[in-house]
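User: My instructor asked us to take a sequence, write out its structure as tokens, and then describe one feature of it. I'm not sure where to start. Here is the sequence I was given:
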Amino acid sequence: LDARAASIVIRTVRNTVDTGRTVVCTIHQPSIEIFEAFDELFLMKQGRQEIYVGLLGRHSCHLTRYFKLLLHPSGADFSDIYKRSDLYRRNKMLIEHLSKQAPGSKDLYFLTQYSYFTQFMACLWKQWWSYWQNPAYTAVKFFFTTFTAVLLGSLSWDLGGRHDQKSQDLFNATGSMFTAIISSAFNTIMVEVPHIFVQSLVYSVIVDAMMGFDRTASKFFRLIPGFMIPGPRIPIRWRWYYWANPIAWTLYGLIAPRLGMRRKK
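Assistant: Let's start with the prediction itself. The structure tokens for your sequence are:
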């Protein structure tokens, strides 16, 4: 956030606190305006060690008074100084007091709990609306998907319709499909599955048409699991990867129906 946006956020937090609620925030290098919006400070140094835990006061008077009273040489360990201070002992006593259960009180108990599935659906629904309200993000992804499809289709124009295909043509087609798989797989989360499906469909239609593959539904939608390198050609120590690599299975499913590859065990 820039300085203005950060100030707006902290002002909103301050208004929430003024209604009687407690808000805990983590801040890094705040401005003086943001810093003095807080009532208490939990100051830590590298290594998660406490330096100061207490009230700030008006214009941070409690904080400055604490450090002014410290008599320390240059390069002193402020964490060690804090652990030997009266402030540290008062905080420990307060924690012990607040940790004791009041007489007649009972632990909180909730009759119902959200299941993992309910939490998952709530998060999925929230993320779905987040994407729906940000069409620019999806539009940019669709643009790059279409652009990549047109680019690769142009580079491999009418490759599938040639009668004098060479091994290099096969490698070119394989490389184009591999690029498609990798580009669609990056930054994919579950809420993007519908978008990725439509993008993949658009991509496949463009590439198939431009590369001259057979325009039949059976070959367009056929997905055969397998691997483009025969199993016996893979070193024995990597043979398990023949079955474990999802990208290879997808790539084989795209190539085999069009170029007549057969899966060998």
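For the description part of your assignment, you could build on this observation: The first strand starts at residue 40 and ends at 45. Try explaining in your own words what that tells you about the chain.
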